[in-house]
Amino acid sequence: MTGPGSAAAGALEALAERGQSLAVAESLTGGLVAGELTAVPGASRVVRGSVTAYATGIKRDVLGVDAALLAARGAVDAEVARQMASGVRRVLGADWGVATTGVAGPEPQDGQPVGTVFVAVEGPDGTGEVRRLALDGDRDRIRRNTVQAALALLLSELTQKFAAQDTEQHGGNGCLQP
Predict the structure, then answer these.
(1) Structure pTM?
(2) What is the dihedral angle through the alpha carbons of 165, 95, 75, 101, rounded to the nearest 10 degrees?
(3) Per-run averaged pLDDT (10 residues), the chain, 178 residues
(4) Where are the domains of the chain?
(5) Sheet-wide strand order for 128-134
(6) Tally of CB atoms within 10 A around 139
(7) CATH number of 7-170
(8) 48 FRET partner, CA 20 to 30 A, in 9, 144, 172, 174?
(9) CA nearest 101: which of 73, 137, 68, 126?
(10) pLDDT at residue number 11
């Protein structure tokens, strides 16, 4: 669903307007989020790169996800997703990071049922959002829906932070100031 009105295009436009960059860390989506972003013309102005951290060891060794956390909870976890988003920002020198981790199937993983997914976004100030998803469908549908959820979360975070910054810079609650 890449196109002018897509979440990918909207997020890239918002980032470009601010002169900010983006990096992506993916597990179950295996590069699909980065693929959706880079399918948008002009993505190179914003996208720094991506890490497909399919193996748990890559999450730990490349992205810096805490080894004790991975041992205790496994890779399908909200805090793992948050640390992946933070790690990819650091590793690729980006302002924003997006991450996906979860179970696309066909079998459960780390005690989590198929369709359990976490998407995370972290911004320049280190704050962000993690969402837990419970998705239905086959492996392909779960992966596609995860891509859309990750991009929608990114766009939402960018829009909310941009609106908050605009309000701070241009007067209180958005009303005209004398």
Answers:
(1) 0.90
(2) 70
(3) 76 97 98 98 97 97 98 98 98 98 96 97 96 98 98 95 51 40
(4) 7-170
(5) 47-52, 22-26, 96-102, 116-122, 128-134
(6) 14
(7) 3.90.950.20
(8) 144
(9) 73
(10) 97
